Request: fold
Amino acid sequence: MSQITIIDYGSGNLHSIAKAFEKEAGSHKLKVVISDKADDVDKASHIVLPGVGAFGDCIKGLQGLEGMMDSLHENVRLKKKPFMGVCVGMQMLADEGMENGSHKGLGWISGKVLPLKPSDPNLKIPHMGWNEIRIEQEHPVLEGISSGDHVYFVHSYHFDCTNKNNALASVDYGQRVVSVIANDNIVAAQFHPEKSQQVGLKFISNFLNM
Reply:
């Protein structure tokens, strides 16, 4: 049976994201594996990079896994396996993250991760809770998801895309905040699909169809 590999680089509890993927995996004849081993990325049909915490710590944790950076390059960049980044896992795809200094990202989708600066001073940081998604471009991963659907966020930084064609959806939080990005076989969400109920499960299912 083909597998979805959720990469564990020490960024926190992966139980809820694994449970969400397990709900959709069976109908796609896939199993879910949480792993810190490059071998499991090699075996995967789909690769998921979650993330909770500070950008620099997450990048360092990922780089600290033996053989992982080479395996990701080979499987995602060369073999073009479907890849999903979630929350900080999305932010790590950028060229650079500006949380607690400047940190080099993976550079898979050009852009910079910057602090949220909502125009309304009453809007609290972090951006936490439900918000309405705005679809900006059609994409298979957004099939059956509409502008006005609600998804769940917890973040203080946002992905500023260099190329507007990489931004598929956004939300308004006193500023435009890109919430879904894509480039070829790579998709990523700033929101948490595992906390976004039916919309989140649809997003996961669409990804597994890639």
